[in-house]
Amino acid sequence: MNFRSTNETLLLGLKEKIAAGDQNSFRQLFHLYSKKLTQFAFAIVKSNDAAREIVDEVFIKIWRNKASITTIQNLTVYLYTAIKNTSLNYLSARAKENMVESFDFFSVQLSDNNSPERTLISSELLKKINAAIDQLPPRCKMVFKLVREDGLSYKEVGAILKISPKTVDAQMMIAVKQISEKVKMYFDYFPNRNIKKN
Amino acid sequence: MAMVNERFAQLIARKLSGEANEAELQELEGLLKEDPELQYFFEMFSKYWKVGEELEDDAIQEDIHFQQILTIAEKGSAGTVGIQTVTAKKATKVFNLKNLLVAAVILGFIVLSYVFIPRSDALDKNNLAQSEVITVKPGARIYMLLPDGSKVWLNSESRLEYKKSFSDTVREVTLEGEGFFDVVKDKKHPFIVHTSDIDIKVLGTAFNVKSYPKESFIETTLLRGLIEVTNKKDPSSPKVLLYPHDKLVFNKETRSPNQMLRTRTQDVALAKPFEKTTLSQSITDSELMETSWLYNKLLLDGQTLRQSAAKLERWYNVNIHFKDDKVGNTPIRYPLSNETIEEALKALQYIEPFNYRINGTDIEIWRKRS
Question: How far is Cα B364 from Cα A29, in angstroms, rounded to an integer?
Answer without folding.
Answer: 48
